[in-house]
């Protein structure tokens, strides 16, 4: 199985990278651009067959190390 | 007094701390490897600055699972002293030994410069040798030092007098321009609720000898020594 994990800054947390990129897009003339948020994307290959068990394990991984719950949210998709 | 300074792969302020504790302040100090677990004899654990594990994933996120960190958590749970400086502060937050987290500097720049800090409380093992609201000049060197905690946590910390250091201007005023990183309420250093674990972004060990341009940082180490002498007396 393959997990695709997205980690994003929480709404209340400053995202200076997102702000800088939004400014860059504006200065390139993309006036339609609103807020930009920058997070992380990870792919994890899992030796697992049981979807439910894999999800439980991924939740644990995301909570313990892959994201910091103080400042980040996460979500993931499981393929295969 | 006995100090232990942890070395993670990527730590780089370990020697500075050993020098200040051993050679400047004449204390017993030794390195701890990140795989060590035998730290029971030590009075104070120092988690130094640097770029542990290349800062991969998030600063401090991998170091905090090193075997020595379990021993540090046990040491802290006994009420013994732990101080994390710069990357050490980031590691202690990731480990949940301190509230909040350190984010990318608001300027997106790595900032390496002297800052003025106001010592907000002298009621801690890390600040007891200071005068009330003393202003000290101590350098920072970081790219991810923007302290963040949610409003409820900040309110709780204020209630418990856990904010130890704030970035201020030369007159001691808390202004935005005094902060190198955009931290919430200019917070530069904090302690936990039980006051035995401290984290700070500035480097007091780089301001402990006249040759380095400031001796103001010594007050942190002298406070720790005061506290330890008091608790052993």
Overview of the molecule:
The complex is a heterodimer of chains A (80) and B (233). By secondary structure, chain A is an alpha+beta fold. Chain A has two helices and three strands; from the N terminus they run βαβαβ. The radius of gyration of chain A is 16 Å and the shape is elongated. The mean pLDDT of chain A is 95. With 233 residues, chain B is of the alpha/beta class. Chain B has one domain (2-232): Class I glutamine amidotransferase (GATase) domain (Rossmann fold). The mean pLDDT of chain B is 97. The interface between A and B is medium-sized, with 11 and 20 residues.
Give a brief rundown of this model.
The complex is a heterodimer of chains A (80) and B (233). Chain A has 80 residues and is an alpha+beta fold. Chain A has two helices and three strands.
The total of helices of chain B stands at 5
Question: Would you tell me the structural class of the helices and strands of chain A?
Answer: alpha+beta
Overall pLDDT confidence of chain A: 95
Query: Which second-level CATH architecture of chain B applies?
Result: 3-Layer(aba) Sandwich
Query: Could you tell me the radius of gyration of chain A in angstroms?
Result: 16 Å
The number of distinct helices of chain A, counting runs of at least 4 residues, comes to 2
Cα distance, first to last residue of chain B?
12 Å
Strand order of the largest sheet of chain A: 2-1-3
Strand order of the largest sheet of chain B: 2-1-3-4-11-10-9-6-7
Could you tell me the strand content of chain A as a percent range? 25-35%
Q: How many structural domains are formed by the residues of chain B?
A: 1
Strand content of chain B: 25-35%
> How many strand segments of chain A?
3
List how many beta strands of chain B DSSP finds.
11
Order of H and E elements of chain A: EHEHE
| pLDDT < 50 runs, ≥5 residues of chain A | none
């Amino acid at each position: 199985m393959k997990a695709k994990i997205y980690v994003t800054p929480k709404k209340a947390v400053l995202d200076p990278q997102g702000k800088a990129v939004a400014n860059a897009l504006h200065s390139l003339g993309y006036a339609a651009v609103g807020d930009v948020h920058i997070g992380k994307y990870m792919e994890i290959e899992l030796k697992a067959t049981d979807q439910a068990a894999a999800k439980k394990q991924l939740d644990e991984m995301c909570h313990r190390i892959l994201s910091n719950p103080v400042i980040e949210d996460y979500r993931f998709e499981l393929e295969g | 007094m006995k100090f232990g300074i942890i070395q993670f792969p990527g730590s780089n302020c370990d020697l500075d701390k050993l020098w200040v504790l051993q050679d400047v302040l004449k204390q017993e100090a030794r390195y701890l490897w990140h795989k060590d677990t035998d730290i029971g004899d030590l009075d104070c654990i120092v988690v130094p600055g640097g770029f542990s594990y290349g800062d991969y994933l998030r600063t401090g996120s991998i170091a905090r699972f090193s075997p020595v960190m379990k021993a540090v958590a046990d040491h802290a749970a006994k009420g013994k002293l732990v101080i994390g400086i710069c990357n050490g502060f980031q590691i202690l937050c990731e480990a949940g030994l301190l509230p909040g987290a350190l984010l990318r500097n608001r300027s997106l720049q790595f900032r390496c410069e002297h800052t003025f800090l106001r010592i907000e409380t002298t009621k801690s093992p890390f600040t007891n040798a200071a005068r009330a609201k003393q202003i000290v000049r101590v350098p920072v060197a970081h790219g991810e030092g923007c302290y963040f905690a949610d409003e409820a946590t900040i309110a709780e910390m204020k209630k418990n007098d856990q904010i130890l250091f704030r970035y201020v201007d030369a007159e001691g005023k808390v202004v935005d321009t005094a902060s190198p990183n955009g931290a919430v309420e200019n917070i530069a250093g904090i302690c936990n609720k039980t006051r035995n674990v401290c984290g700070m972004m500035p480097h007091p060990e780089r301001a402990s000898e006249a040759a380095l341009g400031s001796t103001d940082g010594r007050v942190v180490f002298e406070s720790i020594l005061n506290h330890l002498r008091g608790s052993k007396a």
